[in-house]
From TrEMBL:
Protein name: ABC transporter substrate-binding protein
Localization: Cell envelope
InterPro entries to which the protein is assigned, alphabetical: Peptide/Ni-bd, SBP_5, SBP_5_dom
PANTHER family xref list: PERIPLASMIC BINDING COMPONENT OF ABC TRANSPORTER (PTHR30290), PERIPLASMIC OLIGOPEPTIDE-BINDING PROTEIN-RELATED (PTHR30290:SF10)
Organism: Streptomyces cynarae
Length: 615
């Protein structure tokens, strides 16, 4: 729902918006006003500005609320984590913490906080900032909205001195070197009243300690950041970084051709037609690499809250596992990879993409819900949904099965795949209505859907994307928001999730993660159709180097870190150090007003709400 997973982050924090959707709905804007950057914020002509065209708007700039991939990616630039992921093989490397050590029983972790980090207002970063951040999440449910799963097992967090952070656990926790939680300055955030509504987007510059400092933001238009010259790892080579929102990706591609933006990236990736049109174009390179996302169908299992109250209007037929399995057995994943993604994807199987080989799982031949329309029809018959004289599947109440499917209006993949699903399920006698919206958040959180296109970006450590399917991730009441993806609550899955989280042995933990994936697959609430490639295009005439992740064959946008934007070197800087084999990205001065044109039509901007881009 993610970043698409996205739930990224992958986390992979999907890469889907989950908070304050009403607050993000902007009034209708003219195109020029929507993209006009304030004159006082304009870069000097000597500044190097890296401009990234994205197809996803910000849900929140508060690290306590943000879940969309674009938002969590920006948070990584603003605030350091305790540890980072190496750009080569994603192993933990020092971030705000220079080293870490567990006690013999693995229940107490001591981190040494670096002494050379400062907040952008000049104050020192201390262990107390980290302790305050975690304690706030432990004691305020609203502050735990986005990342609460990381601290649910914490017993106590203290800072004995300025460079020592101590975290005491209730039981062992395998994610202690992968706590994807932005550390914020206590002296700024202690003044915040309501963590459920504060979006960190009204006063600039925003105090941070990351490689960039947030200096400007306009909803559904742009996010502007300035290089932090005092960043402990070294200042970025680009003076400014701008994320500019384009609802229409064809318009973004046109802007790339004219040099108005540096790179067209994000999710959805470039379509095969867009990528093909840019192949061989002077000074433009297409980067096509294995992605960290999955692309799936989610079913409504009966929306409910932790207090037991049910809500929403999901079709009750989907509570029958046989019906869910029948739907998925009528999906030809190979055809989708070949025809929709045109080879820029891998056929979907388990929940974790093959890029993360340690945790990648696929069903056995006997377990797989392989494409088999005849078997799907038999399952529907067994479930009591037989065809009537008109070839329509009907239940005991005589009503035909017709499902509503949430679809992202700005994602061409959703619309293309939806047409195939209409055809395939239609042959089974099941109707399908695509409900393509700019804002899928409101109906999703309210449980007002039958099916939905879903997806998340996955982190090197899979804990977060596993956690969003636990009973603990459900909202406390129907009026609350929470980290749940689509209201799954299964005690067997919960047990497997808890066991993997407490397992330090990497081999044993991987086995438990795969068992959890197997359980999720058998339940049939999620059907992973594909693992899309990260297909991006960027200019090569204005940058000397940029780091992909993984370095050998990886993505630029939506990394598990800030390596791409921090490492990028302007072509005219005379410095090409620290780069990779992937090069490109524009240096340029941001225009005060940019007009978007797609297929010859001037386009207005509307908010994009996506379930697929949770970081």
């Amino acid at each position: 729902m993610s970043t698409q997973d996205q739930h990224g982050r992958g986390r992979s924090r999907p890469d889907r918006p989950r908070h304050r959707s009403a607050r993000l709905v902007a009034a209708a804007l003219t195109v020029s006003a929507a993209l006009a950057l304030p004159q006082q914020a304009e870069a000097k002509e000597s500044d190097a500005v890296l401009t990234v065209a994205v197809a996803q708007s910000v849900d929140s700039l508060s690290p306590f609320l943000a879940t969309r991939l674009v938002s969590t990616s920006i948070n990584r630039l603003m605030y350091e984590y305790l540890t980072d992921y190496d750009a080569g093989d994603a192993h933990p490397v020092p971030g705000l913490a220079t080293r870490w050590k567990p006690s013999a029983d693995k229940l107490t972790w001591t981190y040494t906080i670096r002494s050379d980090a400062t907040w952008s207002d000049g104050r020192k970063v201390t262990a107390e900032d980290a302790a305050w951040t975690f304690n706030k999440m432990m004691t305020d449910d609203k502050a735990a909205t986005a990342n609460g799963s990381f601290v649910a097992n914490f017993r106590k967090v203290t800072a004995p001195d300025a460079t020592t952070l101590v975290i005491e656990l209730k039981k062992p926790q395998a994610t202690m070197t992968a706590l994807d939680v932005p550390i914020v300055p206590e002296h700024v955030w202690e003044k915040v009243g309501d963590f459920g509504t504060f979006n960190n987007d009204k006063s600039f510059p925003v105090v941070g300690d990351g490689p960039f400092v947030l200096t400007g933001y306009k909803p559904d238009s742009y996010v502007r950041l300035k290089a932090n010259k005092n960043f402990w790892r070294g200042a970025p080579k680009f003076d400014e970084l701008v994320f500019r929102y384009y609802k229409d990706q064809d318009a973004a591609v046109a802007a790339l051709r004219k040099g108005e933006v540096s790179i067209v990236a994000g999710s959805p990736s470039l379509t095969p037609a867009q990528a093909a049109s840019l192949q061989g174009v002077k000074d433009i390179k297409v980067n096509d690499a294995p992605g960290r996302r999955f692309y799936a169908i989610a079913t409504n299992p009966g929306a409910r809250a932790r207090n037991g109250q049910k809500f929403g209007d999901g079709d009750p037929s989907l509570l029958d596992e046989r019906v869910r399995h029948a739907l998925f057995m009528a999906v030809d994943r190979r055809t989708l990879v070949d025809k929709v993604f045109q080879g820029h994807a891998v056929e979907g199987q388990g929940y974790i993409p093959p890029r993360f080989s340690t945790y990648f799982w696929k069903p056995s031949a006997t377990q797989e819900l392989a494409y088999d329309p005849a078997k799907a029809a038999r399952l529907l018959d067994q479930a009591g949904y037989r065809e009537n004289a008109d070839g329509k599947r009907v239940g005991k109440d005589g009503k035909p099965l017709t499902y509503r499917m949430l679809c992202h209006a700005t994602d061409p993949n959703d619309k293309a795949v939806g047409q195939y699903l209409k055809e395939w399920w239609g042959k089974l006698g099941i109707g399908l209505t695509l409900d393509c919206l700019d804002n899928v958040t409101d109906p999703w959180l309210a449980g007002r859907y039958d099916l939905a296109f879903d997806g998340w970006s996955v982190n090197p450590d899979p804990d977060f994307v596993l956690s969003i399917h636990t009973c603990a991730a459900l909202p406390a009441t129907p009026k609350d928001t929470a980290a749940t993806d689509n209201f799954i609550c299964d005690r067997t899955y919960d047990d497997l999730y808890a066991r993997q989280l407490a397992e330090y042995d990497p081999v044993e933990r991987a086995a438990l993660v795969k068992q959890a994936e197997s359980r999720l697959y058998d339940l049939g609430y999620m059907n992973v159709m594909a693992y899309p490639n990260a297909v991006e295009a960027y200019r090569t005439d204005q940058i000397a180097s940029i780091t992909t992740m993984p370095r050998k064959a990886g993505n630029i946008y939506g990394q598990d870190g800030y390596w791409s934007w921090w490492s990028a070197v302007p072509a005219d800087s005379g410095d090409s150090s620290g780069g990779s084999s992937s090069t490109g990205v524009v240096v340029g001065i941001v225009a005060g007003v940019v007009v978007l044109v797609g297929a010859g039509v001037v386009l207005g901007l509307r908010r994009r709400a996506t379930a697929e881009d949770r970081e």
